[in-house]
Write a structure and sequence with these properties.
mainly alpha; 77 residues
Length: 77
């Protein structure tokens, strides 16, 4: 399974009238999940979420590609 970099947010049974609306819904859920947490708690939540979603994806090639892509925007040569 190749890494999907196209917008892919949706919710079964829900109709969206704008292409960006499902992404906005996801972003709001993410902000709400972090609300009232300390920086340390937010970091722990992010780590747990990454592990849960990585397990759901399961494909090591996809995860490797995603990690390289994410690191490329952060790491200095």
């Amino acid at each position: 399974m190749p890494l999907n970099l196209e917008p892919n947010f949706r919710e079964d049974g829900k109709r969206y009238f704008r292409d960006f609306s499902p992404g906005d819904d996801f972003y709001q859920m993410l902000i709400d999940t972090h609300r009232d947490l300390s920086d340390e708690q937010s970091a722990m939540l992010n780590a747990k979420l990454i592990l849960i979603l990585s397990n759901h994806i399961g494909d090591l090639a996809v995860l490797r590609e995603a990690m390289a892509l994410a690191r490329a925007g952060v790491a200095q040569p």
